[in-house]
Amino acid sequence: MASPSRPHVVVVGCGFGGLEATRALVRDGFEVTLVDRSNHHLFQPLLYQVATAGLSAPSISGAIRHVLRREMRSGRLTVLMGEVTAVDAAVRCVVIDGHERVGYEHLILATGATHSYFGHDDWAAHAPGLKTLADAFDIRRRVLLAFERAERNAAQAGDVDPADLSFAVVGAGPTGVEMAGVLAEIARHTLRGEYRRIDPHSARVVLLEGGPRVLAAFAERLSARAQAQLAALGVEVLTGAQVTAIDDAGLDYRRAGDNGDREHRLPAHTVIWAAGVAASPLGRQLAQATACTLDRAGRVLVEPDLSLPGHAEISVIGDLAAARSVDARGESVPVPGVSPAAKQMGRTAAANIRRREQGEPTKPFRYIDYGSLATIGRSSAVATVELPRLGRLNFSGLPAWLFWLFVHLYFLIGFRNRMLVLGDWAWAYFSFERRARIVIESPPAAPSGPAT
Amino acid sequence: MASPSRPHVVVVGCGFGGLEATRALVRDGFEVTLVDRSNHHLFQPLLYQVATAGLSAPSISGAIRHVLRREMRSGRLTVLMGEVTAVDAAVRCVVIDGHERVGYEHLILATGATHSYFGHDDWAAHAPGLKTLADAFDIRRRVLLAFERAERNAAQAGDVDPADLSFAVVGAGPTGVEMAGVLAEIARHTLRGEYRRIDPHSARVVLLEGGPRVLAAFAERLSARAQAQLAALGVEVLTGAQVTAIDDAGLDYRRAGDNGDREHRLPAHTVIWAAGVAASPLGRQLAQATACTLDRAGRVLVEPDLSLPGHAEISVIGDLAAARSVDARGESVPVPGVSPAAKQMGRTAAANIRRREQGEPTKPFRYIDYGSLATIGRSSAVATVELPRLGRLNFSGLPAWLFWLFVHLYFLIGFRNRMLVLGDWAWAYFSFERRARIVIESPPAAPSGPAT
């Protein structure tokens, strides 16, 4: 497929890492084939807004061909929609949908992560996670139907089943905290006065965290701020709570009490999973094919320059990679699974391919941490900003929320989406409305797949 | 369920007719229960824009509870999400989802229409129709995946299967004409330069119509204008073409040739059904339960006041009703299946319930025809406007398109949506972009249903 004069690079996955690598490679004159199983790039940090009916799907996603329309015009980029099911490193090709083979001279794997239920895959049916637009629609449907079911049951039976109006969020990282905050806001404000037999305000939102505090990646002071803010929104926060079972009526958890650990039951018809993350299954196939090593989360251990040990022509980036960097004090640290890290890895992997083609030595990946952000409900957030030479700045509340808003709008793909999302948000903020409260009637027919 | 002091009216279906009736009844002090199988009111005239990736679903739909929030505040309205599966006219109750019974003193049935394949139900799998948001997403997925499939096949096999890039639209009423026009626009403008191996411009869009002309409800002169405009957009229009078979590789049709009727084959992997409409299945159940009469399209024959013969307490409105009105010359004419007619029937049915409660005689329904509109591509339309005393005004082209734009924005539910839709359109018009080109990865899990 590649033009004979230009080395051919295959990039698998069009998340933040794959998109950034593709852009750099096309700019540097490479022949690039980008393969993704979906037709769109997704701005995952705002996916919780789609799940909670605040934004429509097109507001946070763009067709890959449209996002990369400038690169398409170069005549050096091919975009193929399909799932890479295997890498055949011996003959240097990827296999798409089990049967089509595309050869490469260099390969970048950026297929990201999925949720992990820590060996309890049966929990998936009761507690959806949030990684794709399909996940977001599933959660949106469950949340909206829970209120409808409660109203129906109350109209018929005359009383409300508390489990109908109980929402459990498992895992208090940024996604769990954001979901819990918005759910509380929906119950208390958005749906107020819209039901006859139930009081949405009586809904319970419970956030369960196995560790000792929420937002563990942040400073302890910010965790405490975030927990206080969640409580003010009406969210019940249970830290040190280990979920031991999930079924369609609720969940069991173990938590330290006065007399040691105790088992508890939380009846809740809606459970959302924001706890575990595992690398995409392509990592396992790669481990079988190349004898590379995976960490416990299924991520591929890579060389300092992000290449696969023994296969300099293969780079692994983003959430699929267990990469290490060197911090300001010269210590080796793991690279976190956040979008700025994926973008930086995409640029480094592309630059190292250019260096290898030019006969130069590759450079090790160096992660630059600009800080972290998490939002809590409608006007609060926590922020950690790394300032060059000045060190780390922690802040919270409205200033952190405004900063969060600015950063997320700035990084949204495309000027148009940005203005529309800002319009949606401004309206939602002042009206307490959420405009995407739409449950699709019946699941659309299965996609026929691009190659059948 | 009803307060003892107020007569209880059940309204089934929250389309244009049911929504209008509900508003009038709550205003008049009735206790109302509105039952709909979905959680949203849909602005169906713009559904083709969702199917062709121009608008997001929330732009043309609103949660019923939100649309009716003022009525909710009256304390006289209950909204239940569920499907009315039967009417038990003898004991005056409706059955929801096969098991829950809700009694009524007055009943308004407004469950609308669905597509009809004229006895060929096996065509449904190959040629989806366009009535619900789920239908629109299905069509959107098929259209976008057709181009992706063509690019994949071209990259692998080196040539393009013309059937991959052939789109057939069956039926040249307003929906079929709108779909065909937009599909041609997508192929010629929106996707230009975004593929490497295929030329989207080479896509064929074929519009097949069994009758002698497109937009048969309009004057002949406007039909001719519309057909010329479609041809200018690159749509192949085949009138007098009777579809005789549809499968996953294309369709067969019969058409008059020089030597009599001839059978033809049109290879096309994407077929869209815009030909037949049938009343919702509740009509058949009603016919069995009350011995009322249905017309050939399954619509319920009603009295001049829209009530069911022999059941003055049941009214049937909108696309479920085969109603007649009296035109300006005093002749009896059938009421067309358009949204203004449904709204007018909703108001008449509500007013007649009020009259019956006050002991007054009911009034016959009188349809006021304000005209008809159909749009063709990005800046053309045909319009027929009925002017009081001045008669009928026919016009086409840009003036008709601007009029169409104004009317559709004016009638869109809610100020906010209207502004967002206008913004989307303005952007799409000048940029040729369509912002909702998103295929959801995998079908979301089946909804658990509100009552389970």
TrEMBL record, chains A, B:
GO molecular function: NADH dehydrogenase (quinone) (non-electrogenic) activity
Domain annotation FAD/NAD(P)-binding: ranges: 8-327
Keyword Iron-sulfur: no
InterPro entries: FAD/NAD-bd_sf, FAD/NAD-binding_dom, NDH-2, NDH2-like_C
Record's catalysed reaction(s): a quinone + NADH + H(+) = a quinol + NAD(+)
Pfam families, A to Z: NDH2_C, Pyr_redox_2
External alternative NADH-ubiquinone oxidoreductase-like C-terminal domain segment(s): 371-428
Protein family (similarity comment): Belongs to the NADH dehydrogenase family.
Protein name, UniProt field: NADH:ubiquinone reductase (non-electrogenic)
Origin species: Rivibacter subsaxonicus
